[in-house]
Each structure stands twice: as C-alpha cells, then as structure tokens.
Amino acid sequence: MSAGPTPPPPGVELLDVRRLRLVEAPAPEPPPWERLAMDRVWDEKVRANPSLFDGPVAACAGLTRDGPHGVVLTWARTTYRRYVLRWIPGATARLPGLFADVAQPTCDGRLLVGRMGRSTSTPGRWLLPGGSVEPPGDGQVLDLAVVRGHAARELAEETGIESAPGELRLWLVTRGTHGSVGVLFLAPPRPAALLRERFAYRVAAETARGREPELDRIALVGSWAELAELTGPGADHADYLEPVVARYAGAAQPAPARPDAARPGPARPDAARPGPARPGPARPGPAPLRPPPPGGG
Predict the structure, then answer these.
(1) Bridge partners of 79?
(2) Measured between alpha carbons, how far is 36 from 79 in angstroms, rounded to an integer?
C-alpha cells in the first residue's frame, strides 16, 4: 500500500462530488468535409475490428462546477462514430466521451481493475469496470439515478458482481487528458475471494455462449506500484486509473495515532479493513467503441 495519494497525471482532474446535475444540449453538426472524414475513419476501424457498432451514446458537451461539491454535466446525444473525430486534425464537432465506472473495493482496501478483451476497442487496457453512458429513450431524462443504474449493470455484466444501484455511492468525477469525463461510484467492500469467484463464473458463462468477455482478466490492486506490475499484450492503463487507486489507497490508510490516544487492543485476524470515507450517495454483444478511453484519452 502506498504511503499516500499521488497527484493526477498532467491533464487529469479528479473532482470530489456530492451533487451531480445532468443537462442535455444538442450535439454540434459536423460540416460536410468533417462528416466525410469521420465516416472514412470509422469504416477503417470497423474493418480492423468488426465487433464495433455505431450505437447511440451520450457524450460530454461540458463540465462546470456548481458550488464546492457540485458539478453540472452537459451531455449530447450522438453515436459512437463521432468519437473518431479526435483523430481528425482540425475537427470542430468532436465531443469527449462520457462513461460511468465503479470502484469495487475488497475488504482489505484494494480495488478491482479489469483488462479489456480482444474484441473491444482498446484490447489490453486496464481500467475500472463500467462503460459509456447511454442516452435515455424518448420522454425520459438522464439523471444521476439513471447513470447509477447503468454503472450497476455494467459492473454485473463485466465482472459478475451484483450491487443494487442504491448501494453505489457517488464518489468522483474524472476528466482525462482528451476531455473524456467519468462518473465514478464506490461499491460496498467485498471479500477478494468472492470477487474472483464471481468473475470466473462470468467469464465461463460468456465463453459457453460463444462470446468473448469484455474484461478478460481482473486484478486487485492497492497502489500505483501494483498497477505498474500489470502486464499483457498491449497493456496500458486508463489515464485516471493511477490517481484513483492512489486516492482510494490514501483514504483507506488509518489516521496516525495521537500521542495521548488509548492504545488499541490486538487486531482480530478476521477483521475487515475499512474503506475510505465517502462524500456522497450513491456490454454484452458487439463491443461499442468505448469513448476513446481516458488514458489514451
């Protein structure tokens, strides 16, 4: 376990939030040349990875502070193909990705991270369980409760770990080097053996159906040094991952004892290590192009 949190990498923000308000705005219309370039790049990526599909997605159109612990997140309806505009020089209609992830702790203070599988848009990348936020249907609104429910579904689909939406507490909002915004929820701590067992069962179930799991491996990490030890083909980390793990690890450290504090008794061998203080409440099938993820972007 690290001695304390490390600052986020340059260009990565971690915002402690207790309130999140979502506001819809229209997506900017790409000019004709930009749309042609976007379609060309998208077609190239689909040829390279036929499992990608151009489904509906909610993208980030703006992020502003709303008081000391609040955030207003503006979002727009679009499709996954718009995310390739980040690779087109001079593109004016690009929108950063918007995703909802879950920090799933173990009882001993580590976090579960997963490696994206071969059929996804970024094979080998390590990140938290979660996925792109989907826009609501006609006549429905996108609010914190909907995003929380989406995060709970993604956690179950990717890891086999089921948590009721109400068990997930709003924890952080991240903004990556390319502007991608993540809403992070904190799940209740669970025994490490249970997390591994649920994930193994989920992978076996997906394989039996002839599908490749979105996450092909998980690890339980408690420091940036343990993240650095994760290897694999094309392995890298989402840009928010190191500072998030460090933030959790620092918060999970016990406070230094005061000189006049009563001396604690012996620790029970089966005692669970407490998680950090939390400020607020709470992709089967073809792989979508998860917003060029934070940490590649």
Answers:
(1) 56
(2) 15
The pLDDT tens digits for 146-195 are: 999 999 999 999 999 999 999 999 999 999 988 999 999 999 999 999 99
- Burial of 55: CB neighbours in 10 Å, binned 0-12, 13-18, 19+: middle
Q: How many CA atoms lie within 13 A of 56 on its CB side?
A: 9
Kindly report whether the global pTM for this prediction surpasses the value 0.70.
yes
pLDDT at 2 over 80: no
65 strand-pairing partners: 71
